[in-house]
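Entry 12.
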Amino acid sequence: MSQEIVNRVANSKLITIDLEDFYPKGERVSVDLKDWLEEGLILREKSFRDAVNNYDWEQHKNQYIALHCSSEAIVPGWAYMLLTTKLSPICQKVVIGTIETLDSLLFQEILSNLDVDAYEDKPVIIKGCAHLPIPKNAYVTLVSILQPKVKSLMYGEACSSVPLFKT
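Predicted 3D structure (tokens):
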């Protein structure tokens, strides 16, 4: 006599949130200001402006851009702002920092618009394994947004989750 196998996870009221579902599509590119500095260290306004004006900005169309300077140069704020005036009309987003900083800010924007009322008084699991580079900060942001609303919060997979919070 065999017993019917019941998938209790599929029958539960558990809601799974996978941050990969929110991952913005588009190429992420790091742009190094060092390439526009004399000897990679000195910003001379005229030559910097000339380099900026002669650069092919269209190559960054629809990309997500992280501006940074990999040298020890002291870069004035206006230099980043000047590059942003060229990039903003053609790319999806411009930030100062690393690609991880860029992704953190993208997720901050996305999660701030999340309809958390849909999770009110429900058990929620935040999926742990990701194939895309989800920043750790996105998980922290999601927890802080969900905690005031949910009944319980877990991390991982339904079959092996780590409890984080329960009312």
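Annotation: The radius of gyration is 22 Å. The longest helix spans residues 99-112.
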